[in-house]
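Page 47, continued from p. 46.
Same chain as before, 123 aa.
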Amino acid sequence: MRIKNRTHYITRDLKRIMTECARRASRSGEEKRTRRLIVEIGYAKRYGYSGYAYYSGTYMMLRIPRDINNFNSKMFARLFYHEYDHILGYRHNEIGGRYITSGDYNDEGFDNPEWAVNIREGI
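Result:
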């Protein structure tokens, strides 16, 4: 996974969350896709967070808030996991309970993921 972090958040913290999400979401034989994946992380233009990824592709863009008070590791994990499902080839109607626009994430381990470190700001 190659990361282009254009934010003030520490890349190592973001990568740790993305790596664990990819590990949990990947099925046998999909590890090559993760190795070729390019993730660009930038700021949301206004508020909230969003992203996009190409179906069965190798590129995703994640837009996150500048203000750490409006963002946390759970939000980042949800966002990455959703976009990673698109990388794996899933469309919104195929993602089912993992689709996050409702604000509800049904996948076990996302309420308080112990592996989701606190995202820190760089100096």
